[in-house]
Automatic annotation (TrEMBL):
InterPro entries per the UniProt record, alphabetical: NusB-like_sf (IPR035926), NusB_fam (IPR011605), NusB_RsmB_TIM44 (IPR006027)
Domain NusB/RsmB/TIM44: 17-139
Its job: Involved in transcription antitermination. Required for transcription of ribosomal RNA (rRNA) genes. Binds specifically to the boxA antiterminator sequence of the ribosomal RNA (rrn) operons.
Region listing for Disordered, in residue ranges: 137-179
Gene3D superfamilies: NusB-like
Protein name: Transcription antitermination protein NusB
Membrane-traversing stretches: none
Domain of life the protein comes from: Bacteria
Entry's family note: Belongs to the NusB family.
PANTHER family: ANTITERMINATION NUSB DOMAIN-CONTAINING PROTEIN (PTHR11078:SF3), N UTILIZATION SUBSTANCE PROTEIN B-RELATED (PTHR11078)
Organism field: Actinomycetospora flava
Length: 179
């Protein structure tokens, strides 16, 4: 007979919930222009907010401490897509995934990738799971791939930012293409 999981071995799903909580915190901090560490501290202290596990806090702190490196990695694998052009949810999912692949020894790469894909499937565009998979698989293998990014009409951009072909956006249907 198998007994309940001990506190040292999290039940299946607890890390998935922690990843989603970390994503919420990172997304909120970016959307509000606040420091992620401050949002994390507020969430930990808040009695009315869902609990923040140690794993969720580790993910947020890891993404914050390695953010510049993480963003460089993502930018090098997300061909034709700048960080600003990606849906904000995808950007946060990728940051968490890259942190887990590069700096977390206790999470196997395939698990980090699958968890990121599940978050993208649940929270982002129809194209996002494939995009997230392609970027993170490239990061894990060290081989960049050609990844179809989410379609530009589904991308949330900061106020005042517009897409243009200079940003690497695909030309609109009515624009002539070279070639």
């Amino acid at each position: 007979m198998v007994g309940p999981a001990s506190p040292a071995t999290p039940r299946k799903g607890s890390r998935s919930k922690a990843r989603k909580r970390a994503l919420d915190i990172l997304f909120e901090s970016e959307a509000r222009g606040e420091d992620a560490q401050e949002v994390l501290a507020r969430r930990i202290a808040g009695a009315d907010a869902p609990p923040v596990s140690d794993f969720a806090a580790t993910l947020v702190e890891g993404v914050v401490s390695h953010r510049d490196e993480i963003d460089e990695v993502i930018s090098s694998y997300a061909r034709g897509w700048t960080m600003a052009r990606m849906p904000a949810v995808d950007r946060m999912i990728l940051r968490i995934g890259v942190f887990e692949i590069r700096w977390s020894d206790d999470v196997p790469d395939p698990v980090a990738i699958d968890e990121a894909i599940d978050l993208a499937r649940e929270l982002s565009t129809d194209d996002s799971p494939r995009f997230v998979n392609g970027v993170l698989a490239g990061v894990s293998s060290g081989r960049p791939g050609t990844v179809a990014a989410p379609s530009p009409d589904r991308v949330d951009l900061p106020a005042g930012v517009e897409l243009s072909s200079a940003d690497g956006a695909p030309p609109a249907d009515d624009e002539p293409t070279e070639g």
